[in-house]
Specification:
The protein is built from six helices and four strands. By secondary structure, it is α+β, with helices and mostly antiparallel strands. Strands 2-1-3-4 form a four-stranded mixed sheet, sandwiched between helices. β1, α4 and β2 form a beta-alpha-beta unit. It starts with a helix and ends in a 5-residue tail after the last helix.
């Protein structure tokens, strides 16, 4: 009787554990599918934006304001995708390689829209925003605090501050990341590049970073 009780208890434990693992796997799969769908949507929008640019040039149509607003709207989608991806990283226990693939795709979208916003800023007189390229990596302790400061400033400035993060760990596998790391001679993390030309190395206090952003010209929050 005692032996049978142990067997039954073991079976119950196994069933409960297996059910929990299966539920977690299903949740992870849903998160992965959600991120993939968001990435696919952004990539489709990116292609639409590229075609629109060609049409503007061919038809000699002055669409600066429209392109600027589209770039801003898409940047919001990139921000939201980043939040979803971070949530996936924090809660997932499966398939780390899959997460890296998704992050790689997301990183390429960030670089594209950073470049796009810089282009719009050069072409459009009413481009009242500052871009920030934020270099970090997962092993950098100071990067966590720097990221929190950037998040706070983003909440204050809204569309006047466009932040794009670049994980330098991808420099060895992604040519575009490697190009940016070399272009700005990134030898330490965190490193921040404001509006393409102003480079700040190592941890930057909130007050100093805020002053640098204001000096670049977006106006107050």
């Amino acid at each position: 009787m005692v032996k049978n009780s142990f067997i039954i208890a073991g079976l119950v434990t196994f069933v409960v554990f297996s059910s929990g693992m299966l539920l977690q796997w299903n949740l992870d799969q849903r998160r992965t599918d959600d991120v993939l769908q968001r990435i696919n949507d952004l990539e489709l929008t990116t292609n639409s934006l590229l075609v629109e640019k060609e049409l503007v040039e061919v038809l000699d149509y002055k669409a600066c304001t429209i392109q600027l607003q589209r770039s801003r709207d898409i940047s919001k989608d990139v921000d939201r995708l980043g939040s979803v991806l971070e949530s996936y990283r924090d809660s997932s226990i499966f398939d780390e390689s899959r997460y890296k693939d998704l992050k790689h795709q997301y990183l390429l979208l960030e670089i594209f829209y950073w470049a796009k916003l810089l282009e719009s800023k050069k072409l459009c007189d009413d481009a009242n925003y500052v871009t920030v390229l934020y270099f970090y990596n997962e092993k950098c302790d100071a990067c966590k605090d720097q990221g929190l400061i950037l998040t706070e400033l983003k909440k204050e400035y809204g569309e006047k501050l466009m932040i794009f993060s670049v994980d330098t760990d991808f420099a060895s596998v992604e040519t575009n990341v490697n190009t940016l790391v070399k272009e700005y001679n990134v030898t330490a993390t965190p490193t921040i590049v404001i509006d393409q030309y102003r480079k700040l190395e190592n941890f930057i206090s909130r007050d100093r970073l805020n002053s640098e952003i204001l000096a670049a010209g977006p106006g107050g929050p």
